[in-house]
Structure formats: C-alpha cells, structure tokens
C-alpha cells in the first residue's frame, strides 16, 4: 500500500479525498489529513477515519507518509512542497502550480535538487471524454489533426464558492485557461507561438474574466482556445469543455452532454462518452469529479512504478509557459513564443 497524506480539506479537496478512498483497491491508503481550519480538518479526518492535523509539520513529522497530495491555493504551494521535499516525500500539487512562472520553476527545480518525485494535478486531460478524443487521434481514424477549437465557456457563479477569485490579479487564463491550454498541448503537441485577447466583462471582477487565444503548433496545426466565466448561453455546459478537432481525413467533436461524434473518411458516428454517477459525485460536477479519480489513479500508478507522471512538474512548466506567453501577448498585442 502507498501511504498518502492530504493537505487542504476545502470544497474541491473532497473530490480528492473520495478518489483516494475509491483507489484503495489499487493500493492507495489515506493515512492523514491537514487543514489550517480545525473544523475542516476534523470533518475530513472523521469522515475518512484518519488522524487530522492543523499543522503540516506535525503531520509530516509523525512519519509514514509516502505521497503528499497538496490541495491548497497556489500561493502556498512553494512553502508546502519545500516541506515535503526536505523530508523526501513525493508530492502532487493542485493546479495552478504557482502564481508565476518563476515560482513554478523554483518549485520544480527544488524537487529535482532533492531527488523528489513531483506531479501537478492537471485533471482536464484525464476526463473520460478527453481520453476518448486522444484515443481517436492516436488510432489515426481521422488522420493528422490540423485545426481545433477548445472551449471552456460558462456563466456559472464561481465567485460564490471561491470569492477570492474576484480580487485576484490574473483570473481567466491562470484559473481555467491553463486547463484548456494543457488540452491544446495534449491533443496537438507543443506550441510555436500564441496570440491572446482578454476582456473584463464583469465590472465587479478585478482581472480578466475572458480570454480568447490562438495557438500555432509546431506541427503546423492551429487551435483556438477559449476560457470565460461570463458566458450567458443556455444551456450552460458547465463544467464541460467542448472540443472540435479537424484532421486530414475527418474530425472529432465533443459536444455539450458528453456526446462525441467522429467523422472518418466521410462517415460519421456518435456516442455518449460520459460516465455514470458514483456514490460521491453529483450532476453536473461528476464530469470534473471523475477526472479527479482518473488523475489520482494515474498519479498512484506512476509513483508506484517509479515513472514520471504525464503531468509531471517539468511537463506542467510547458503549459505554464503558455499561460505567461498568453498574458504577454494580451499586453503587447502581438504573438509570443513560449519560453520553454
């Protein structure tokens, strides 16, 4: 069994906790939880039957943790990951990896110096629909991808559950755009240059709440990547990401409702690619919740086999470089080459 500790017992962390519980058959053993809020720590500890702490040093010094899942806000990641690294504890960090590329690089480099396994919980690429799209591409059923639109557009009130988002300096690109930028890399490969236009459509929000990005991939493919919290379309697809990929011999489209249509050599076939509700998931959140389960399963398997996760710290820096390039492109009104 792999002994797992978790830091951060807030709203979204409940998905991580339930996922680790479901993965017991794969060798996951949740052994401790920690949160600065004593009520949250106690509630999680009692629900999952493990010791709970409000001090991360006490939890880590108690010993026995092999893999630490940090599900806290990004401004705490450098501090917490350093504590794990100095104790040689493998670590998973919730996305975004850090508030800035410099801090993200420092986190990854510190783990490398300490010889510690590090991964980023970038879960969009592990959703059922996204994995099915990837499988279609890899099967060569549609040929070589050459154009895509990847959209996360919603009017869901994210500020109700996470009010701090209304006051952050960087919002749409760093919070949800980072997910869809990672999907662009996942489907079409690395990026040569990126252009970006941002908008602040909600006057009550400090930063950009909408980003429209155009990517030129090394392969020659072009993708349009979109992220907004100010869509007013109905039905609202939240929390789904909608994908269209055109290729040399066909296309694959993931539409609202998790219906995927594959066109191959002039013939089209559609199927539902969602997943049933689990005892701890709820509609429509299950689209995101099952992605957490799949991400944790991948992390566990990679760690236990001694291999890098697909979203290792080093890999995630490439996605983070796209985030920084998008912000620079928006400020300068020109296309920008990512620096990694």
What characteristics describe this protein?
340 residues, alpha/beta, eight-stranded mixed β-sheet, 10 helices, 14 strands
Q: What is the makeup of the main sheet?
A: 8 strands, mixed
In round numbers, the mean pLDDT is: 97
Gyration radius, in Å: 20 Å
Structural class: alpha/beta
User: What is the tally of beta strands?
Assistant: 14
Low-confidence stretches: none
Helix tally? 10
> How widely separated are the two ends?
36 Å
Helix content: 25-40%
Q: What general outline do the C-alpha atoms trace?
A: globular
Strands ordered across the widest β-sheet:
8-9-10-7-11-12-13-14
Describe the protein's topology.
Blueprint: E1 2-7, H1 13-22, E2 28-34, H2 38-48, E3 52-53, H3 56-61, E4 67-70, H4 77-86, E5 90-94, H5 101-114, E6 118-121, H6 128-139, E7 145-153, H7 158-161, H8 172-188, E8 191-199, E9 210-217, E10 222-228, E11 242-247, E12 250-255, E13 259-264, E14 267-272, H9 286-305, H10 313-332
Parallel strand pairs: 1-2, 1-4, 2-3, 4-5, 5-6, 7-10
Antiparallel strand pairs: 7-11, 8-9, 9-10, 11-12, 12-13, 13-14
Helix pairs in contact: 1-9, 4-5, 5-10, 8-10
Structural description of this entry:
- The structure is a single chain.
- The protein is of the alpha/beta class.
- The protein is built from 10 helices and 14 strands.
- It has helices spanning 13-22, 38-48, 56-61, 77-86, 101-114, 128-139, 158-161, 172-188, 286-305, 313-332, and strands at 2-7, 28-34, 52-53, 67-70, 90-94, 118-121, 145-153, 191-199, 210-217, 222-228, 242-247, 250-255, 259-264, 267-272.
- Strands 8-9-10-7-11-12-13-14 form an 8-stranded mixed sheet. A 6-stranded parallel sheet has the order 3-2-1-4-5-6, sandwiched between helices.
- The protein is globular.
- The model has no long low-confidence stretch (mean pLDDT 97).
